[in-house]
Design brief:
Elements: H1 16-25, E1 28-34, E2 37-44, E3 49-53, H2 67-70, E4 75-80, H3 96-110, E5 117-122, H4 124-136, E6 140-146, H5 170-185, H6 194-205, H7 221-224, E7 230-236, H8 246-254, E8 261-265, H9 272-275, H10 277-292
Parallel strand pairs: 3-4, 3-5, 5-6, 6-7, 7-8
Antiparallel strand pairs: 1-2, 2-4
């Protein structure tokens, strides 16, 4: 059964900045304090809380294609983590454990403590969510990894990224972002639309944490060994980092929970939640149904 959207998604004849402003305008914007700054949260919908954690050099906008449908079932809390997006600078040290501690404290402040929660993290957000998971203890129902590394497993070597910072003209900068999205984020170049380019440009200008360095080593084993909530994975089978090695992610995660729920998005790349939102949402709801059954 298809979940009806809570509001209209971005559409082709809507300028990217207009679509973002409209969807953001439908949210309640909240703030939680951390040492040296504030985290910005966008909240939509009603129901069981779902905390969404963006990828590296990202913001809440990494989830923009999913928000209209997710908010039809959940109360969605999409955060800009410290050092990203509109949130304040991340205090040292810049590691997964420290970021997770701040995010978990923010969850405790913004989500009523008597409410159990789901979490989902895209890429770097999955790593942070995996470290938040044991801190949330029994209240965590599930945590979903999407395109996440941080497990010390095989990562494909990618073509070098193009420096958008060195681009002297707006069109050259746009093409640098397009090329980088094609290298890492989106498997089908035809899916790299103006909205994706706008989000990539906005996000990367505001990324102040070298999140890519956190994805190489195993940053999850200790945390996942203490996690109470159900672990799930939802990856594009054409993920630039993991293509050909998804079985390693399955083996790793099922080592902590043999009842792991893991699905693949056919034809989707690393940013599968954006590239194939209908398939992502459908699979995610079916996975949640299994957990909540």
């Amino acid at each position: 059964m298809t979940q009806p959207p809570a509001f209209a998604p971005a559409h082709d004849d809507e300028a990217p900045q207009d679509a973002i402003a409209r969807i953001e305008g439908l949210s309640e914007v909240c703030h939680t304090a951390f040492d040296g700054g504030q985290m910005v949260w966008h909240v939509w919908g009603e129901g069981t809380p779902l905390v969404l954690l963006h990828g590296g050099y990202g913001s809440w906008m990494h989830w923009i294609q999913n928000l209209p449908v997710l908010a039809g079932r959940f109360q969605v809390f999409a955060v800009d983590m410290p050092g990203f997006g509109a949130s304040g600078d991340m205090p040292e040290p810049h590691n997964a454990e420290h970021i997770a501690k701040l995010v978990s404290a923010g969850i405790d402040e913004i989500v009523p403590k008597d409410k159990p929660i789901h979490m989902a993290g895209f890429s770097f957000g999955g790593i942070i969510g995996g470290n938040v998971a044991p801190l949330q203890g029994e209240r965590l129902i599930s945590h979903t990894f999407s395109g996440s590394s941080g497990m010390g497993l095989t990562r494909n070597t990618l073509e070098p990224f193009v420096s958008w910072r060195k681009a002297e003209m707006p069109e050259a900068r746009k093409e640098a972002h397009r090329k980088n999205l094609e290298i890492l984020m989106i498997a089908d170049p035809a899916k790299i639309d103006d909205l994706a380019l706008y989000i990539q440009d906005w996000n990367t200008q505001r990324g102040r944490v070298k999140s890519h360095l956190i994805g190489h080593a195993d940053n999850l084993s200790e945390a996942l060994s203490q996690t109470k909530g159900r672990l799930m994975g939802l990856y594009g089978n054409c993920d630039a980092y993991a293509k050909g090695h998804l079985h390693e992610r399955v083996t790793y995660l099922s080592g902590f929970q043999p009842n792991l729920i893991f699905r693949k998005l056919e034809g989707a790349g690393h940013w599968g939640c954006y590239e194939s939102p209908d398939a992502f949402n459908k699979n995610y709801f079916e996975m949640i149904d299994e957990v909540e059954a």
